[in-house]
Structures are given as C-alpha cells and as structure tokens.
TrEMBL record:
<feature type="region of interest" description="Disordered">
    <location>
        <begin position="113"/>
        <end position="146"/>
    </location>
</feature>
<feature type="compositionally biased region" description="Low complexity">
    <location>
        <begin position="115"/>
        <end position="146"/>
    </location>
</feature>
<keyword id="KW-1133">Transmembrane helix</keyword>
<protein>
    <submittedName>
        <fullName>Uncharacterized protein</fullName>
    </submittedName>
</protein>
<feature type="transmembrane region" description="Helical">
    <location>
        <begin position="12"/>
        <end position="30"/>
    </location>
</feature>
<keyword id="KW-0472">Membrane</keyword>
<keyword id="KW-0812">Transmembrane</keyword>
Amino acid sequence: MISSSILTIFKYVTVAVAMMIMMMMIGYISSVDGFSSSSVPPPPPPISVPVWSFATTTTTTTIAATIESNTPCPPTTTTSMNIMTFCTPVSVSSPKLWALSFYDGTLTKDSFLGTRSTRNNSSDNDSNNDNNTNVSKNENNSNNNRINTGVLQLLTYNHAQLVKVLGKKSGRDINKSIACQEAGFPWWNNKMMNKKNTRESCDDDDNNNHNSNTNDCTQHQLLQNSCSNCIDFDLLPGCALYIQVEWQPSSSPLIDAGDHVVAICEVKRTGIWKQEDNKNGGIGGQVLWSDDDELLLNNNDEEEDIGNNTAMSFLRLRSDGLDESNALYSGQLREVGII
Ligand SMILES: *[C@@H]1O[C@H](CO)[C@@H](O)[C@H](O)[C@H]1NC(C)=O
Ligand SMILES: *[C@@H]1O[C@H](CO)[C@@H](O)[C@H](O)[C@H]1NC(C)=O
Ligand SMILES: *[C@@H]1O[C@H](CO)[C@@H](O)[C@H](O)[C@H]1NC(C)=O
Ligand SMILES: *[C@@H]1O[C@H](CO)[C@@H](O)[C@H](O)[C@H]1NC(C)=O
Ligand SMILES: *[C@@H]1O[C@H](CO)[C@@H](O)[C@H](O)[C@H]1NC(C)=O
Ligand SMILES: *[C@@H]1O[C@H](CO)[C@@H](O)[C@H](O)[C@H]1NC(C)=O
Ligand SMILES: *[C@@H]1O[C@H](CO)[C@@H](O)[C@H](O)[C@H]1NC(C)=O
Ligand SMILES: *[C@@H]1O[C@H](CO)[C@@H](O)[C@H](O)[C@H]1NC(C)=O
C-alpha cells in the first residue's frame, strides 16, 4: 500500500521534474529567441499571394520636350507600372475598398499618390534624375479633390518573367514599356478603343496633340475631371483580371508603413482580357470592362456563341474565382527562383 503510493508519488515527481525541465528548456529557447529578436521581431514566413502589377499615369516634363517645344507647359503623359507586393481587398460591399501599399521612392507611388520621394538615397537613384524628369503631377497640393486612377493587373503564370522588369527596376532607369515589349508583352492602350467607339469625353485624340500645347494641358485636366473612368495610360496584355481603383486624397488619408505608404482605394470596375487574333506579332486582344458598351453590344450579337460571350466570361470568373490555376502567385515565383 505505502510502497505503491510512494511509487505513485515518485512517478508524479518524475513527471513534474521532467515537465519542469522541458518548461525550462522551452523558456530557455524562447528567451534566447526573444533576446536575439527583441528589437526587431522576425516577419511571418512568406505567404503565397497573388502577384499584381499596378499601372497608373505619370506626368513628366522632360528637358528635351521643353527645349523642343520652347514652352514650359507641356507635360508628357506616360505610363508608370510596378509590381505591387502588398495589396488586398478590405471590403466587398459598397464601397468596395482595397488597401494598396506603395513602395517608397518608386515612380508609381509618386505618380499615383502625388508625392515626391522622401528617400534621398534610394537604389532607385531618383534623386539624381530630377534634372531630366520632373514629376509634376500634384505639385499643387491644395488640389485635394483630384481623383487618382490606377489599374491593378493580376498577372498570369505567362507573365512570371516580367516580375524582373516590373518589380526590380525603376521606371526612372529603364523604359519598362520597351522592356515588356522585348519580353513579348507590348503594352496595350485603350486609346484605339476610344477612337473606335468615339466616346466623347474619353476621347483624347492624338491628332490634337500638335495643335496647341496649352490646349493640351487644359484638355488633359478636363479629361481627368470629367471622366473618372478614363484610362490614359497603357495596360499589360493578357492579365487574369484588371481592377480599376481610385484614390481621393481628401477622403482617404495615407497610412505610413515605414518604407511603404498604404492608400485605401475604391474599386470602380473590373475588366478581363479578351483574347483576339494576333495582329502585330504581339498578344492580340483587348481589355473589356464590366461596364463597357462593347459588352452589351456583344450580348445582343447575332452569334449565339455563349462560350465566348464576354458577359458570360465575367459570370464564369465570378463563380469560379481565381487561384494558382489561372493567376500567378508569389509561391510560384519562389519555386522558380524569381523571388
Ligand atoms: C538625406 O536624408 C537624411 C535623413 O532623412 C537627411 O538627414 C539628409 O540631410 C538628407 N540628405 C540630403 C542631401 O537631402
Ligand atoms: C546611401 O547609400 C550608400 C551607398 O548605397 C550607403 O552606403 C549609405 O548607407 C546610404 N545612406 C543612407 C542614409 O541611406
Ligand atoms: C546614380 O546616378 C548617378 C548619376 O546619374 C550615377 O553616376 C550612378 O552610377 C547611379 N547609381 C546607381 C546605383 O545607379
Ligand atoms: C542638374 O542640374 C544642376 C544645375 O543645372 C547641375 O549642377 C547638375 O550637375 C545636374 N545634375 C545632373 C545629374 O545632370
Ligand atoms: C523641376 O522642378 C523644379 C521645382 O519645381 C524646377 O525648379 C525645375 O526647373 C524643374 N526642372 C525641369 C527640367 O523642368
Ligand atoms: C492650385 O489649385 C488652386 C485650386 O485649383 C488654384 O486656385 C491655384 O492657382 C493653384 N496653384 C498653382 C500654383 O497652380
Ligand atoms: C518608352 O518607350 C515607348 C516606346 O518607344 C515610348 O512611347 C514612351 O514614351 C517611352 N517612355 C518613356 C518614359 O520614355
Ligand atoms: C473563343 O475565343 C478564343 C480566342 O478568340 C478561341 O480560341 C476559341 O476557339 C473560341 N471558342 C469558341 C467556343 O468559339
């Protein structure tokens, strides 16, 4: 009786001691861990997330253009495109909001948010380029009601190699449009569409460009104010999904995130790539937006090709969703050593 109870007690003591030793070890390990990382806790492990490229318009003044035209006014509008690492929906009902995180020092950030780079020593080397390229957009900071438009482009596996171009290089150093073209993805522009459809307010006809520079400037401003859905910049062809977002400085302040700045943007519409016959050696096709006239047109077409009906494509995408089978994920980039 006594001996068995002693045995039981002994067993408990043994277990207790073992547990204490284990707890000490765990405590030791975690205290070492805590010590080594007390100042900067390690980030969570990488999570496979969709890979987005963000496109927006950038208004720059080049010395060459200024000298050529002999007027201080004309800014040239080009496209700024970047990989966006941190980007996620934060609501799905109205308003549909997404959180977009812009890397400090990038041309895309400065263009979309109307900021000037705060880093004076970035690998972007932007501080040295101020002579050649002035980011003139939003120099008038009082103009807080301006709405900035950009397009999130969900890449596909075919675009994987573009990550090197769009993500690791600055538009200040290379011409990404040319680089993408060389990689087989010449940027697509909806100006052709606008011409075809003669959408009044959206139509910024190239032919007017040489008439009067001052007119051009005001015209561009009018364009931006009157037509919020207008996209006056290029897009990447063949993406799995396009999401047009807007950010209004006056309604949504920026969030400081260290080397990033977070903007809460509103989703305006979504688009898909409609593959068409290869015309000029590039990817043939066009972006169709969920609100495009073209959609309705196609709907009433005599051809009852339900399988290829764009509206149906939208519906199918809505029900099937997007995952690794039809969109590029960062885990896939990691597998092939691109990141
Ligand atoms: C660069 O930034 C640092 C820190 O913000 C600042 O102290 C320094 O004066 C800046 N240098 C120039 C040349 O702007
Ligand atoms: C500036 O860049 C140089 C060289 O890349 C680097 O050694 C230095 O630490 C940087 N300074 C700051 C303030 O970032
Ligand atoms: C930055 O630009 C300067 C002047 O244009 C150039 O001399 C320097 O090599 C560039 N640095 C990097 C890291 O590209
Ligand atoms: C920029 O312009 C200033 C003044 O005109 C000049 O001193 C400087 O060398 C120029 N920098 C570059 C990188 O061209
Ligand atoms: C760039 O902007 C600065 C400040 O607004 C101005 O002083 C400079 O002349 C501009 N440079 C060019 C090439 O337009
Ligand atoms: C800034 O914008 C306001 C309002 O649009 C305008 O009245 C003002 O003249 C602008 N200032 C400059 C320097 O462009
Ligand atoms: C890049 O090259 C394209 C095609 O040659 C041109 O239209 C565009 O203006 C260039 N972009 C910049 C920022 O120079
Ligand atoms: C749908 O369109 C694609 C590209 O335009 C074409 O390859 C495919 O054969 C079409 N499918 C049907 C069912 O017509």
